[in-house]
Specification:
Layout (H helix, E strand, L loop, with lengths): L2 H13 L9 E16 L7 E4 L6 E2 L4 E5 L2 H14 L3 H25 L5 H40 L2 E3 L4 E6 L13 E16 L11 E6 L7 E8 L9 E8 L11 E7 L1 H9 L5 H7 L7
Antiparallel strand pairs: 1-7, 1-11, 2-4, 3-6, 4-5, 6-7, 7-10, 8-9, 8-11, 9-10
Length: 297
């Protein structure tokens, strides 16, 4: 072997132990699931009048999904609104109070001139005070009517069912004309973000941390690679199976992925990358100089 080849050989031997180690990758089986599943129901009993969604439709948070028959509730709102708008009783008592005040002033002037007895002043003052209380009572009744209107409107609003999440309609259980008593109307699923469930062996406990990135590889025909993040790591082990659960969050803004997919997941050990970045890189020139004294064979 020539001197130059021998120098290169020993240089390579020197570099091999200090080259950055490949990132440790642990691949496990996983399942992609909806982030939230909702069995949409109604707080109020009634008959479905209209349904605005079908199975597979996309819905936004706050979107109207169904309406119940609300003719009775609408009539109650109309009645309460009319009662809350009544002002005749208040105006009547306002006139009585104004009259009592004028009358009280006149009687006081006459009493000062020794024309009327004291008991007339007492009677007029009492009547005026009663008129004031009746006016206040009329105003309180109007306030109660306004509160009753608010209550009737809330009852009416219960007849309209809104979606609590943005997602898709997984299933529709009822149709117009059916009762919603103790029965869900539809099933909704939030699929942005998605949830990735992993059952990991106990040997990995403590090596996977919250916030750690991972790569999700869905099964065919979807395929591809998607970035996800560890959200929770179960702190309790399953002694029977020797496993623990890991949950990740998988963004899905374009709804390209769906739930129910099996997948593989790769956890890249962040400690290996950190140690590689911190370790100094060897200088090939210094390594070659170190072995230049090797004699020829």
């Amino acid at each position: 072997m020539k001197k130059r080849d021998l120098v290169k050989f020993y240089t390579l031997l020197l570099l091999l132990p200090t080259l950055p180690a490949a990132a440790q990758v642990q691949e496990l089986d996983c399942v992609i699931e909806p982030n939230v599943l909702v069995e949409l129901s109604s707080r109020a009993d009634g008959i479905i009048d209209r349904l605005f969604v079908e199975r597979g439709d996309q819905v936004d948070a706050g979107q109207v999904v169904a309406k119940l028959d609300s003719r009775v509730e609408q009539a109650a709102v109309d009645q309460a609104r009319a009662r809350a708008a009544m002002m005749a009783e208040i105006h009547s008592h306002e006139i009585n109070v104004a009259f009592g005040q004028r009358n009280e002033q006149r009687i006081s002037e006459l009493h000062a001139k020794k024309v009327v007895p004291v008991h007339d002043i007492d009677r007029v003052e009492t009547e005026t005070q009663i008129a004031r209380y009746k006016l206040q009572q009329a105003r309180d009744n109007k306030r109660l009517a306004e509160l009753e209107l608010n209550r009737a409107m809330e009852v009416l609003n219960l007849q309209t069912i809104h979606s609590p999440i943005s997602g898709v309609v997984v299933d529709r259980y009822l149709n117009p004309g059916e009762s919603v008593e103790d029965r869900p109307i539809a099933r909704l699923a939030q699929i942005d973000p998605l949830r990735v469930e992993v059952v990991a062996p106990v040997e990995l406990f403590g090596t996977i941390k919250t916030g750690q990135p991972a790569t999700v590889l869905p099964e065919s025909p979807v395929g591809g690679e998607y970035d996800s993040t560890v959200m929770t790591v179960d702190p309790v082990l399953d002694a029977g199976s020797g496993t623990f659960r890991i949950r990740l969050q998988l963004p899905n803004p374009d709804y390209r992925l769906t739930s129910g997919l099996r997948c593989k997941i790769q956890f890249h050990n962040p400690e290996s990358f950190a140690s590689d970045a911190a370790s100094p890189k060897p200088d090939p020139i210094q390594a070659e100089l170190q072995y230049r004294v090797i004699p020829e064979s």
